[in-house]
Amino acid sequence: MIENLKKIYAILNIEQKKKIGQLSLLIIFSIFFEILSLALIIPLIYVVLDDPYTGIEKIISFFGYSQYSYVNFYFQNINKPVLINLIICIFFFFFFF
Question: pTM higher than 0.85, yes or no?
Answer without folding.
Answer: no
